[in-house]
Protein backbone atom coordinates (compact mmCIF):
# COMPACT_ATOMS: atom_id res chain seq x y z
CA UNK A 1 0.00 0.00 0.00
CA UNK A 2 2.88 2.34 0.75
CA UNK A 3 4.26 1.84 -2.76
CA UNK A 4 0.89 2.59 -4.33
CA UNK A 5 0.57 5.76 -2.22
CA UNK A 6 3.99 6.89 -3.39
CA UNK A 7 3.05 6.14 -7.01
CA UNK A 8 -0.14 8.17 -6.60
CA UNK A 9 1.87 11.24 -5.54
CA UNK A 10 3.68 11.08 -8.89
CA UNK A 11 0.51 10.14 -10.81
CA UNK A 12 2.05 6.79 -11.78
CA UNK A 13 0.31 3.47 -12.19
CA UNK A 14 1.75 0.32 -10.65
CA UNK A 15 1.15 -2.66 -12.94
CA UNK A 16 1.81 -6.16 -11.70
CA UNK A 17 3.05 -8.59 -14.31
CA UNK A 18 2.16 -12.12 -13.18
CA UNK A 19 5.07 -14.36 -12.14
CA UNK A 20 5.52 -17.41 -9.94
CA UNK A 21 4.50 -16.75 -6.36
CA UNK A 22 1.74 -14.50 -5.07
CA UNK A 23 1.02 -12.99 -8.50
CA UNK A 24 1.16 -16.31 -10.34
CA UNK A 25 -2.45 -17.36 -9.78
CA UNK A 26 -5.29 -15.13 -11.04
CA UNK A 27 -7.24 -15.38 -7.78
CA UNK A 28 -4.30 -14.39 -5.56
CA UNK A 29 -3.31 -11.59 -7.96
CA UNK A 30 -6.79 -10.06 -8.05
CA UNK A 31 -7.16 -10.48 -4.28
CA UNK A 32 -3.89 -8.61 -3.76
CA UNK A 33 -5.07 -5.77 -6.00
CA UNK A 34 -8.43 -5.53 -4.23
CA UNK A 35 -6.75 -5.64 -0.80
CA UNK A 36 -4.31 -2.84 -1.71
CA UNK A 37 -7.06 -0.85 -3.40
CA UNK A 38 -6.95 2.39 -5.31
CA UNK A 39 -6.97 3.35 -8.95
CA UNK A 40 -3.19 3.25 -9.41
CA UNK A 41 -2.67 -0.52 -9.16
CA UNK A 42 -3.52 -3.08 -11.80
CA UNK A 43 -2.27 -5.96 -13.88
CA UNK A 44 -0.21 -6.32 -17.02
CA UNK A 45 -1.00 -9.87 -18.18
CA UNK A 46 0.61 -11.48 -21.18
CA UNK A 47 -0.62 -13.96 -23.73
CA UNK A 48 2.35 -16.25 -22.98
CA UNK A 49 1.53 -16.29 -19.25
CA UNK A 50 -2.11 -16.97 -20.11
CA UNK A 51 -1.14 -19.82 -22.42
CA UNK A 52 1.07 -21.38 -19.75
CA UNK A 53 -1.91 -21.81 -17.42
CA UNK A 54 -3.62 -24.29 -19.74
CA UNK A 55 -6.75 -22.11 -19.69
CA UNK A 56 -5.75 -18.88 -21.43
CA UNK A 57 -9.31 -17.61 -21.80
CA UNK A 58 -10.16 -18.21 -18.13
CA UNK A 59 -6.92 -16.62 -16.99
CA UNK A 60 -7.36 -13.50 -19.12
CA UNK A 61 -11.03 -13.16 -18.17
CA UNK A 62 -9.99 -13.15 -14.50
CA UNK A 63 -7.10 -10.67 -14.64
CA UNK A 64 -7.86 -8.41 -17.63
CA UNK A 65 -10.58 -6.39 -15.85
CA UNK A 66 -7.72 -5.07 -13.69
CA UNK A 67 -5.35 -4.49 -16.66
CA UNK A 68 -4.05 -1.21 -18.01
CA UNK A 69 -2.08 -3.04 -20.70
CA UNK A 70 -1.83 -6.56 -22.08
CA UNK A 71 1.33 -7.96 -23.68
CA UNK A 72 1.29 -10.08 -26.84
CA UNK A 73 4.74 -11.62 -27.23
CA UNK A 74 5.61 -12.42 -30.83
CA UNK A 75 8.69 -14.59 -31.20
CA UNK A 76 7.57 -17.50 -33.35
CA UNK A 77 4.21 -16.06 -34.41
CA UNK A 78 3.23 -17.31 -37.84
CA UNK A 79 1.59 -15.45 -40.71
CA UNK A 80 -1.88 -16.62 -39.61
CA UNK A 81 -1.32 -15.76 -35.94
CA UNK A 82 -0.26 -19.23 -34.79
CA UNK A 83 2.08 -19.28 -31.81
CA UNK A 84 3.56 -22.25 -29.93
CA UNK A 85 2.90 -20.72 -26.49
CA UNK A 86 -0.67 -19.46 -26.88
CA UNK A 87 -3.78 -19.40 -29.06
CA UNK A 88 -4.02 -15.83 -30.35
CA UNK A 89 -7.70 -16.21 -31.24
CA UNK A 90 -8.59 -17.48 -27.73
CA UNK A 91 -6.66 -14.62 -26.13
CA UNK A 92 -8.34 -11.95 -28.26
CA UNK A 93 -11.75 -13.51 -27.62
CA UNK A 94 -11.12 -13.40 -23.86
CA UNK A 95 -10.22 -9.69 -24.03
CA UNK A 96 -13.37 -8.98 -26.00
CA UNK A 97 -15.49 -11.05 -23.59
CA UNK A 98 -14.60 -8.79 -20.66
CA UNK A 99 -14.92 -5.60 -22.72
CA UNK A 100 -11.22 -4.75 -22.61
CA UNK A 101 -10.48 -1.62 -24.62
CA UNK A 102 -6.99 -0.80 -23.38
CA UNK A 103 -3.59 -1.18 -24.97
CA UNK A 104 -2.17 -4.41 -26.34
CA UNK A 105 1.61 -4.16 -26.49
CA UNK A 106 3.40 -6.22 -29.11
CA UNK A 107 6.65 -7.53 -27.62
CA UNK A 108 9.05 -9.11 -30.11
CA UNK A 109 11.06 -11.84 -28.41
CA UNK A 110 13.27 -13.27 -31.14
CA UNK A 111 13.89 -13.30 -34.87
CA UNK A 112 13.49 -10.28 -37.12
CA UNK A 113 11.86 -7.67 -34.89
CA UNK A 114 10.17 -5.70 -37.66
CA UNK A 115 8.87 -8.86 -39.31
CA UNK A 116 7.48 -10.16 -36.00
CA UNK A 117 5.77 -6.85 -35.21
CA UNK A 118 4.24 -6.77 -38.69
CA UNK A 119 2.97 -10.35 -38.44
CA UNK A 120 1.51 -9.77 -34.98
CA UNK A 121 -0.16 -6.53 -36.04
CA UNK A 122 -1.64 -8.18 -39.14
CA UNK A 123 -2.89 -11.20 -37.19
CA UNK A 124 -4.47 -9.01 -34.51
CA UNK A 125 -6.07 -6.74 -37.11
CA UNK A 126 -7.48 -9.71 -39.01
CA UNK A 127 -8.97 -11.21 -35.85
CA UNK A 128 -10.53 -7.92 -34.82
CA UNK A 129 -11.95 -7.25 -38.30
CA UNK A 130 -13.34 -10.78 -38.61
CA UNK A 131 -14.98 -10.58 -35.21
CA UNK A 132 -16.51 -7.17 -35.91
CA UNK A 133 -18.14 -8.37 -39.14
Summarize the structure.
The chain contains six helices and four strands; from the N terminus they run H-E-H-E-H-H-E-H-E-H.
Structural features, described:
Strand 1, helix 2 and strand 2 form a beta-alpha-beta unit. This protein has a two-stranded parallel ribbon with strand order 1-2. A two-stranded parallel sheet has the order 3-4. Helices cover 47% and strands 12% of the residues. It is an alpha/beta fold and 133 residues long. The protein has 6 helices and 4 strands.
Keywords, please?
133 residues; alpha/beta; two-stranded parallel sheet; two-stranded parallel ribbon; 4 strands; 12% strand
Topology:
Elements: H1 2-9, E1 14-16, H2 26-36, E2 41-43, H3 47-52, H4 56-63, E3 69-73, H5 88-97, E4 103-107, H6 113-132
Parallel strand pairs: 1-2, 3-4
Poorly predicted residue ranges: none
Beta-strand percent range? 5-15%
Q: Classify the oligomer.
A: single chain
* Separation of the first and last Cα atoms: 44 Å
Main sheet characteristics = 2 strands, parallel
Q: Shape from CA axes? A: globular
Query: What's the total number of strands?
Result: 4
Mean pLDDT: 86
Number of helices: 6
Give the proportion of residues in helices: 40-55%
Adjacency order of strands in the biggest sheet: 1-2
Structural class: alpha/beta
State Rg.
15 Å
What is the N-to-C succession of helices and strands? HEHEHHEHEH
